[in-house]
What we know:
The chain is α/β, with parallel strands linked by helices. It is about 45% helix and about 10% strand. The longest helix has about 30 residues. The radius of gyration is 32 Å and the shape is elongated.
Amino acid sequence: MVTGLWAVLVAVPGQLAGWVVDQIVLVAGLDRAVAVWPVVALVTVLLVGAPTLALALIPRSPAIRATGRAWLAGTLVLGALTLLRALPPVHHEAYLAALAATAVVVAVVLDRLTHRRGSVAPGRDGAAAPGDAPAASAPAPGSATGDAAGRGGATAPDGPDDGVAPAGGPGGRLGPVTLLALAAGLASLLPWVWVGALGGASETLLAGLAAAALGTLAGVLLGPAFWAAFAVGTPPRPARLVLVGGLVAGVTLALLGAGAGQSGAQLPALLLLPPLGFVLGTLEAGARHAGRPAGRGPVRWLVGLALVGPLAFTDPEEVTALLATTRDVPFWVAVATGVAFAVAVLLAVGYGVLLARSRARAPRRGLAGLTAAALLAAVVVVYAVPGQPGLHGERLLVVLREQADLTGIPAGAPGRAGRDARAAEVYRRLVATAERTQGDLRRELGRLRLQPTPYYLVNAIETDGGPAVRAWLAGRPEVARVLVSQRLRPLPAAAPPARGTVPAPTGPTWNVSLIGADRVWSELGVTGAGVVVGSSDSGVDGRHPALAAGFRGGDDSWYDPWEHRRTPADRGGHGTHTVGSAVGRNGIGVAPGASWVGCVNLDRNLGSPARYLDCLQFMLAPFPPGGDPLTDGRPQRAPDVLTNSWGCPPVEGCDPGALRPATAALAAAGILVVAAAGNTGPYCGSIADPPAPYPDVLTVGAVDRARQLTRFSSRGPAAGGAAKPDVVAPGAGVPSAYPGGGYATLDGTSMATPQVAGVVALMWSANPALVGDLDRTRRILADTATPAGSPADAPCGGARNLVGAGLVDAYAAVRAARAADLG
């Protein structure tokens, strides 16, 4: 048992360590470490394989050899399956297909090896070798032989694939032991159908196939030859089969579970599969007491159904630290795993009690069948009522080759009139291009019932579809590329809404004073009146006392593409905080006299390319509730400056150029896009996720109270060597509004970004002729910025890629804006 403990102590921490590395890399914004899982596989095979190989080869008792062979095979299986995690998580269907195929191939190979060992002579001690067809599988004299025995006929010995034991009915019907295993598997599945949700059609089908293949593989690892080694005595002693055989089977299943799923999905299997070894031991003991071994059928059903839960009802990309701060997917996966573990333990105990009370009588097939049927009905009811029925897979964003030509748009008159004219012309060209180029593809997708949604800010279409549809779309001549547009699966219950707990400030907050915004109010009499700031974020608490008066109002100032709420609201709090820093009253906002409009592009702290486009389109041309963005947009109602404290990393489906046409179009319309640099410092080149690296975006880094660059603030250069960020602002310990009427103090470039948007609002309020003049506005911000501290050795190509032009100075910028000659 020391070897088994060693195997578990190597495999489990290895899997946890691999997942933690994945999460660290994800949170840090680094490139995915593809070599992590091959290294984990190699280390596990080397450390566990050697002692298990010794057990398999040393000529001791058949039980020890069977133990070594099972654990060695399990270790090799774990190594092979772990290698599959080199596939990117975003291609989950490809991973599941590879998992199913690999499991089947390994099962066939191991099955042939088992049959080859079964043809050799018995061991030296006269007992059957682990691969032999054991004499213990024959019915004991005077013992029951299952259902057939009750009808006067003896049953034939089980073959290696027999799933109708010990009471296999005529015509290959499922026997009582297999039905009990089926019932146990359905019981293990119940927690997952309650808290989980299925992905897309192809994803769900492949997950089911992968679970079935892994169940088949488990049937080979824990087949009749394995249990025969622990079936000592006539009839066999149940305690040895249940306790010793079950323990060995549990370790084997732990090794199998460690490889069953993409990074994150295997963690539940590590906990819920091992107790099932004792359930299998109990079923085997009952079958052998009834006259014949159980065969592989019970193992297949039990393990396969148990693995359907984590493979089909969770998305491994959502088992992430990014969602671990609230009661989100990681919490519910932990709940399902804990309940499934408890179910497995109760099954082991319950079946053990039934075995003890049966006194070697065969389980009744009718009762076992009713139990399985009742649990199947329970699974259906739980899935349909408290569960999350339906398919919730990712969608595809099809980016077309032709993008709108926005060159030669007249500058028009200075100020808002000219900006509105440019915005209208940009909107017209974008929509015309989308309508002209998307027609054939949209009709084809509609004919296939793939629910296409057109976009114009980037000429693209979002649609349903799995790998086959993606391959078909990628081959069409009008398509440039196809991105995965992530969609979070629903939860059984929404996380508690965020609430502010910090008291309201009694005057201008430290960050507002640091950049001189309070001096702008008191000395220059400018508060941002007449300027509209647009926020795309988690939402806004529209009833917050610091924000309610600033909402622009009307039927085109709020859009929620996730939940379609008609009034401003915010579950997460991030968006309320950022809007507060831009335009909040009570001393928290840089431009408290400005108005705001809002859009929800983050759901539970994650977004997708399509949702980001939904909000950016709304900012270019707002539309009323239920309106069509392509026909009902109102570019004359576009906000003046946009604050964007988000980025679209590859895990959400974006590639580096995914949103490039969108920001270019907004710039052409005279709408200034201000974006957070990101919180992936101190690594050089970490300003990578759209839209922060784009040249037409004003990118903002973060400093602390001492005007020093924060460690978390992302650094440049951006792709192609472009210098980023453009400026920095306070981003460490920033107080602002939070849902529920309270306040909170947060860190991040997310907190710095809205302050710069607020400074722009002050500038344009002081000189309305500057509205829409993005080049001159950016120059004034850069020319009036003050020095900000950065590392002495100035890595990343110099201070320009650390703090940009420096710390934004609201007072100096507004004075310069007032004095600007726009002739």
